[in-house]
Fold each of these.
Amino acid sequence: MNGAMSLLKTLTNNGVEVCFTNPGTSEMHMVAAIGQTGEMRSILSLFEGVCTGAADGYGRIAGKPACTLLHLGPGLSNGSANLHNARKANSPVINLIGDHATYHKKYDAPLNSDVIGLAKPVSHWVRSVADAVSLPSDAADAVVAANIKPGQIATLIVPADCAWDESVDPIGQRATPLAPLVNADSITKAAEMLGNGKPTVILMSNLALTEQSLRFADQVAQHSNARLFCDTFTSRLPRGEGRCSVERLAYFAEQATLQIAHAEQLITVGTKAPVGFFAYPGKVGEFYPEGCEIHALADVHEDAEAALQGLVAELGAQNQALRLNPLRYPGLSTGEISPESIARAFSEFLPTDAIVVDESATAGFLTYPLTETAEPHDWLSLTGGSIGYGLPTSIGAAVARPEAKVVCLHGDGGAMYTIQSLWTMAREQLDICIVIFANRKYQILQIELARVGAQSMNKKTLDMLDLSNPDLDFVGLANSMGVAGYKATTANEFNLMFERAMKEPGPRLIEAILDVDVSGLG
Amino acid sequence: MNGAMSLLKTLTNNGVEVCFTNPGTSEMHMVAAIGQTGEMRSILSLFEGVCTGAADGYGRIAGKPACTLLHLGPGLSNGSANLHNARKANSPVINLIGDHATYHKKYDAPLNSDVIGLAKPVSHWVRSVADAVSLPSDAADAVVAANIKPGQIATLIVPADCAWDESVDPIGQRATPLAPLVNADSITKAAEMLGNGKPTVILMSNLALTEQSLRFADQVAQHSNARLFCDTFTSRLPRGEGRCSVERLAYFAEQATLQIAHAEQLITVGTKAPVGFFAYPGKVGEFYPEGCEIHALADVHEDAEAALQGLVAELGAQNQALRLNPLRYPGLSTGEISPESIARAFSEFLPTDAIVVDESATAGFLTYPLTETAEPHDWLSLTGGSIGYGLPTSIGAAVARPEAKVVCLHGDGGAMYTIQSLWTMAREQLDICIVIFANRKYQILQIELARVGAQSMNKKTLDMLDLSNPDLDFVGLANSMGVAGYKATTANEFNLMFERAMKEPGPRLIEAILDVDVSGLG
């Protein structure tokens, strides 16, 4: 058996069963191997950023890695921004990056580049395969690396001859690594802080945001009068009816620092102390008050759920009744279409166990609070700040859980980065509804321009943040790639289109034409 | 004056007058500075790969750098594949990459990454600015680095505080570095080889492919009975009526090795000895015959034109009459649309001094030979092999030479990588005509699959190389981004559409629907 086939069988032996592909010549033996096995589903995309974003979404929902198959250094480069997001989400992802045959590298042919150098900044684990015989065990190591909790980016570089040369038997199933337990002192320390009467904030992310983790945290918070927060951008957050709530830290520093200004103590669980997304002239980078005592109950890789359970026990809060969200709809708007009317329809019609992929940026600011008491759902956010994650991540989420409706909320600017995603949605007939907030500008940047104190707000400057010349036609883009598209210009139109989209399967796109004026900002 | 403004003025003082932008918050002071100066033209794109590809095209035609303005590590990543192509083209490019404020890096905020690590594999020169005071001289150094002949990728990382802090005066004009002359021994050696009667091939690229270089080379070749070749993929090649011809080395190893199988001597000028684009099982990587003597007359950075001129003098070939291409049209086809009918119309109607940007891959194989005697034109190719360069590079070429018609020949698969380019073409009303060869597959990969000896050619395998489910509608895509689109399904339709496109200004797209069957390959 050649290296490619032994690689493939090693991956499927270890539970990797989906490959998001955009291959080239150097990956042809891996393509052929995928074609010959029945156990690996192959999903083609027209651009590598779609593959990596899809692997991110798959990892967040499936809790195990898919693989990508990308074409040498440039293929990795095109997928790199969404790997950055996946890395910040701590998603499990395996990248298979083809490379020139080991003996061909020295010629520095046109497609040659420093693949390891390109891989390191976006990976937790990188290895370049030495020969076909090593390939199966390298692949098994990659799966283990990707499965380090909550998840890691493992990048395996596969020179072409390692794929086509004769190899050895595939590796069987390896044990998936468990998240290590925090030590008992860490729990005792947290319990002491929660018992000393000082105002305390508990900030959570990653493994501290499972449905069960949130229940433990709710008992802790009630018992000790602490306030629960989660990071602004989280990999996955269970929300809606029957879930325990957690406040989300605001994006803008002015608001976030206010939210936790009262805290004398901060306990982090599965995350670190909160800092600004960007620096601004003359503003602080740390969101917590000066002198605030900080204790890390569990770091990102530790078993945060067990730590919170331990804390419940230590505090004796096991019998504390949970504050579970009721089901409550905000009601629909009529008249003008607006971020609020969309948020209301969204909350009203979101079906049970939907997955929300949010890259709505400024225009979606009301969708999050209004869904607090919607049907139970999972909320996925842009963890790494690199726009263009929403459409690809929706693909991966839909592949990981085909029975769920995926709703993708997207700003128009960000959606254009990986617009090729629509074609894969059509090809795979995925159950995804995309809502485009078409305000025809990079509105967040017009706000940021004012916030950073940049002086020029003249036409030439604002043109660099404007998308209205010419207007993009997202319905046309969707139709051109095989996805049904609809344009909503009133609240009623949107309400009807969205209600229908929630009831009918298959990919579709609704372009909500907004006219959000921020001209007063200057 | 703040750092951003002094940076901008330093760039414009040094002849940098176009910026291809896709900025974010960390670049807002640079955006404001561009907005305040009249000397820097700013061109917005919806994706960073468009910016970098455009800078490549601009550099190839203008012979001097434009700059890009990109958003931290992920913005650089999205532009990285086309920087790879630009690096292999030796194009002059300056990247301005925003980064977190120097004092904010330590927080490892969501958008933080190893920007230097991401930049190195795609740059010849990388520097991260230390403070606002250093910024102007760093910018001047970047311009000098980019202008090392034929051109280099210079990446300047600009932390946000270096842009907004008080800086010093901008740097005035620095001298542009000249290409060093080759030493006399190198010319003497080449002359000796050319005089010894052995069959000799001269392989040229980069600075050896100026119109004047080709004239010198033609005199050398006639005088010494040598054969002239150029690399398969060249940054820019002057062709057509009144130019001296040079044979292009074939892409496939089987053909390329045959082309130069007779050579006992190889003289390289502005390039290196030819090797395979990829390795294939059991095939050689080097294209030249075993035992062939190789002499590098001029390396990539040396003054190849002067070296060829010196060689003409050493051989006493100054009075050799030039073999200039005549103007000869191949005539139009009627009936079925095909690669040949398109190539004929293309050669017939290509206007004087057009710029051809070629990413036509398999379907365009006839356009190159049939334009040998077309109107004089420049031919730009995919130097780094990373598909998705054609549309962005066309933007840069059109900006650099607004009086020229730019014709972009593009495969359908490759065009989808940076399809967002269409919007910028519409926004700037650039005089670009795009021809999409819509064969609805990655045809080159179906060929390569057979060539690498991969065994499986079943449906699952071929699906990974297929673009027909669903069909892409390029006319719809163009219209959705403000570009006029036309679909051609017969030779006559294409002939009329293309003729008209050559006569009318402004961006337009012609989708040529091809039905190229390669099913016999398995």
Amino acid sequence: MARIVLKFGGTSVGDIDRIKNAARKIKAEVARGHQVAVVVSAMSGATNQLVKWVSEVATLPDPREYDVVVATGEQVTVGLLALVLQQEGVPARSWVSWQIPIRTDGAHSKARIVDIDTTEMARTMAAGEVPIVPGFQGLSPEGRITTLGRGGSDTSAVALAAALKADRCDIYTDVAGVYTTDPRIVEAARKIDRVTYEEMLEMASQGSKVLQTRSVELAMNHHVRVQVLSSFDDALGSDLPGTLVVDEEEIMAQGLEKSVVSGIAFAKDEAKVTVTHVPDRPGVAAAIFGPLAAANINVDMIVQNVSLDGSSTDITFTVPKADLAHAVQRLEQAKADLKFAEVKSDLNVSKVSVIGVGMRSHSGVALKMFETLAAKGINIQVISTSEIKISVLLASEYTELAVRALHTAYDLDAA
Amino acid sequence: MARIVLKFGGTSVGDIDRIKNAARKIKAEVARGHQVAVVVSAMSGATNQLVKWVSEVATLPDPREYDVVVATGEQVTVGLLALVLQQEGVPARSWVSWQIPIRTDGAHSKARIVDIDTTEMARTMAAGEVPIVPGFQGLSPEGRITTLGRGGSDTSAVALAAALKADRCDIYTDVAGVYTTDPRIVEAARKIDRVTYEEMLEMASQGSKVLQTRSVELAMNHHVRVQVLSSFDDALGSDLPGTLVVDEEEIMAQGLEKSVVSGIAFAKDEAKVTVTHVPDRPGVAAAIFGPLAAANINVDMIVQNVSLDGSSTDITFTVPKADLAHAVQRLEQAKADLKFAEVKSDLNVSKVSVIGVGMRSHSGVALKMFETLAAKGINIQVISTSEIKISVLLASEYTELAVRALHTAYDLDAA
């Protein structure tokens, strides 16, 4: 017998039929003798309608009232799902966030979970009742309703699993798991059976939008075993049909052969900025990125080469495409101080990344990437590496070609 | 400066434009220097959608989960209205029922308000903030969400007005007030400026569905001055454009000439049942109505004539049309015990009532009713009277004719 938290996303509870489908999965897990708690999202579309109403009445809405309105979406789902389960003979009840409570900080519409008191809930679970909890929301220190921001339901589920010391957190969604790359681009993409938190984080932030980054961080910090799986398949979570996101140790301990590279990620939402002929002196990088941080612009890949002439250098980095104009404007304003020559920008770039914890202990992973891209005649504009990731920036039109070539080169193609 | 509770019903907050309209009225009352608290219903249609979902998932829904689902309707409105007011420069915040709290008993889906703690709310009102409260709901002794049943938002508003010791409770709805009778039947029907609680209760239970009966009882018990008025008119509540429901003393004290009869009500949703040749002995009435009460059938007009032959009598009463078949079945089952001759029933009846506190001190009111109906050739089947009401049962097809004739006879027609 295991204790499992099941989370159903918006499309998995999108209408009454989908809610009934979720209930069948819950009932089957209970029938196997598992202790089950459930976290649900709003019915797909519901949150958008609520947000639309808010935007129709206020240009800069008070986030406290925004939260009051949008938190109703999940409250509808918890009540309906509890009713369906009861109808199916499964003892169940809803727990809205202030009843548990799920305590958060006071950052309305983007709150962080501080604490979940599961004392009472664990007691009812031991007595055979299935608690149904709304994702995405909590209770502020002032006793008001908070929401965690988009995608927050994953975080709610992982946090509840941590608080309940659950054996696993099954995230039911509309995809069968995490893939070696986007199956829409590479037909031979394979579902990954097991992936480490670190790899998942790189994949999530690289654009594989299966799990929200915050939920993966939380799972890593609390060693919560997370499974991503499809609610549209027949298979049950306990049979592990999806992708398990776990500690590297668990993968090693099971003697599973871990491929060096787990997946190929790509992102098309960044723009490249190059600041040329920056005086090569201490503090100049801080001087460039200070104004951008002050403007809340997220800077990603940063590359600074050694100075060739001993007096000036070029600094290249990426920013979200939506922030490019703003970033360039901020840099131009600082030109007099920074004494650089020029700001160049390019929207026509993509970032392609090779990800795998295995590369820590294997040499030649980067070389294979560069050789593969060279063989296809693809020019690498910028390179940036971490312990478990190598990212390159290339011209957008080569994205699919590069992803497919790398997927094959690292032996990721399905047999 | 007065303290006023404003309540906006479903059609008065039916869409974003209607919510903005409600906000304008609130803002205007605040501008006049009044302390204002607001109670709102769900946007019209919202509750029906939520109830429909519940009915799609459960035949006999757990009322606790039913309440979790349907209570979201008002929560959406409080958030949106608070946002609109803030946008208009009026300090406002939503208070959901568990935050105040509005304590109810544990009778889910038909709970009764036990207590409203307005300490904190009164403090914020004194500081110039407008509290926006969801009608129709509260917090059970077990800490779960309750709803008060259909029409409960009026009750919430009156209860809040009582707790806040408000000077008035303005119920904004889609009619301009309480009329001397249904204007769809009598073109000359007039809006009543002032009506007593007792009269309003008789009108509400007689089928003038302007205010929910429970809210009028509550207002009477706590001497809350209630005004019914239209949110679709330009006039503001403080100018008293609607119908004031108040103590008889207030009407007398103002030296207002009170007409003997305030209004003519009618109901078409009752059926007549006659039990013939019932043995005329003590306890027989109890024996007849016991089985009906046990079956939760609401019995209204009851008439028992004196026994003519000294040994048996006929008993006539009305029940809701929807319960008629059930009532007849119960009586037939008891026939062996009761030893009556026959149960006769008639769906083709209407109840027409003349209502007015003035009739307590005026003779001839009933006589005028009987003469008026006789002059039109309308046969009276059953008569039942109270201190402030005379009701008769007549064949349905005479309803409109009777109402119009009585409206004229009691000088209620508009000049």
Amino acid sequence: MKKRKIRKKSTGAFLYFGPPTDEAEIRYHTGFMAPDALFFLRLGRIHHLVVSVLEEGRARRTARHAEIWNFERLGLPEKGARPADVALALLKKVKVRRVFVTNEFPMVLADALRAAGLRVEAETGTREGARAVKTAWEIRQIANAQRATAKAMRRARAILREADIRRAGALFWQGRPLTSERLRAEIEIELLRQEYLSEGTIVACGAEGADPHSRGHGPLRAGKLIILDIFPRHRVTGYWGDMTRTVVKGQATPEQVRRYRAVCRAQTAALRAIRPGVSGATVHGQVAAVIERAGYPRRRVRNREEGFIHGTGHGVGLQIHEAPRISTRDNPLRAGHVVTVEPGVYAHPIGGVRMEDLVVVTRKGCRILARAPKALVIP
Amino acid sequence: MKKRKIRKKSTGAFLYFGPPTDEAEIRYHTGFMAPDALFFLRLGRIHHLVVSVLEEGRARRTARHAEIWNFERLGLPEKGARPADVALALLKKVKVRRVFVTNEFPMVLADALRAAGLRVEAETGTREGARAVKTAWEIRQIANAQRATAKAMRRARAILREADIRRAGALFWQGRPLTSERLRAEIEIELLRQEYLSEGTIVACGAEGADPHSRGHGPLRAGKLIILDIFPRHRVTGYWGDMTRTVVKGQATPEQVRRYRAVCRAQTAALRAIRPGVSGATVHGQVAAVIERAGYPRRRVRNREEGFIHGTGHGVGLQIHEAPRISTRDNPLRAGHVVTVEPGVYAHPIGGVRMEDLVVVTRKGCRILARAPKALVIP
């Protein structure tokens, strides 16, 4: 984390207050992990950090380009100062009367600063955009995360391979029923051993997979589509990986195979289309067309959406979803963007098929950051 | 989660927007886990939830007392609507012109609503307070979480017991050096197997323990204070546990024992003082006095704070830190509050001693929710 240089010169005063998005911003600029809410004022290349007495030692050791402020130095009592008091004291010390804030900056704080005569304005879109183009160092961190993700994916496949098929297609592993919960725990244990944290791992079998946000629960069954979506974060660097595979234990039906092939073709189309200068909307349109031509138009059936019902991809870095998006919005891709490519097709009750890899946009196209087996069927 | 009844009648319209704090609020009222930002409008007993098409099915199945809105029903295009458009459309549909928001509500949204003529005001302190008194159902969830935490703590002790002491006090376990990272991973694996997620587990050895927020890294050593602070969250219910023990592998020095005993006495004093009606500040004052009398006054030494440098406790529920606080602030305790009791004493370079249990305030005093061994020395 120490090797990364600050590349961009920025003007204006940017004021951040605490997690979650602002925490990624603070970490990006200083390398300092700030789990508790605090103030961070970016003035050109200098980062003014206000930290509690508990965080002070750690901040001094780990934050780059940072001037560390405590309550004493700000002339505030150790107890009883409200967040607005802290922000006002800091802004007074550094003689700033106008600040830009993120979309997450709280109204109550803005109201208090404005009441004290300061100008508080929303920063318009440039901030996340600045983080979207990754440095070589950042790409290595994300590639490491994706390799850990691929290893966890192989572990999931190995467990499914070892599992027995019993009555009514129920899967058993190590003598007990194999559930979404058990497989998820084993995936996340594999990641923990590599220093990656993972919270939302999806192991969604059959109809559950028709809802792309359902994490999955209960027994896993042979002959059903199982979506495995793994997105861990390194517990020190904070960078994420993100990968999805869809598998069937035992034998797949022709319709499952047809859907799987449509999604593979759609992903290949996306990987071919991605290059600097092309709009995310163009890529997304091509992906959607492949899936529609394969016979899976997006439509509403009995109050449920089916077909390709989400975007093609999103940026990944210190946040799991960040700029740029590959969706219906016009969003030009640039070299150094790191994005997921994750077409899918969904229907009730057959479930979902999704295939997701993480790529970095290169000068001529894109490069997959880590590979893992793609076969649909696990014998 | 289905058994909990809504107890309190509230007036006014409360508008929430997305995680993290608001997510706890949404879950508290509806039981619905909302990882992505969305709107939640509480109007008396009815909860209006605006969800994306991806969340709609899950919201209909799992949210209580909720009216689910999608973009179509709000008359919005499926793509391109900004958050402010969504909020305005919802408030128009339900004919609300004045809303209360949390401390986390974003300024950019408030500005947009105000520009459209709505009144947006900060709710003043009552919200977190309402969640502070737990129902019997909630207390059971937190007690379950604390039992899982105690089990993980016993696992950590067992690993330290199994570890060998080698040259210069280095600990080895299963043939490899035992580090903070390895012990943390084993603790969190134990929790994962019980369906609990844990991110910030502290395993801080020696001088690292002098900073209460340092998670700890590198080799663990015999004869040093090791702080083990475990706080996992159930991945389905969302309730937290929180427990800390301090141990020494091998032999403890008389000064380590003296600090440990001071902290134990301070915790006992707190457990005796906690009952409905007493102020958190009174409890905290008694705890601080015990530690000071034992010879560990709070003071600044070479730019570091030492002594008892944090509050005595905090509420635990759907957030790891919530109301009430047991600190210098006047905060009367009530039956049904669930709070940590966690005195500590810190100094450089000896490290920290902290002892933390979770209690529910009862009619006559308080009850510890789950127990775990407290012995300082692990042979």
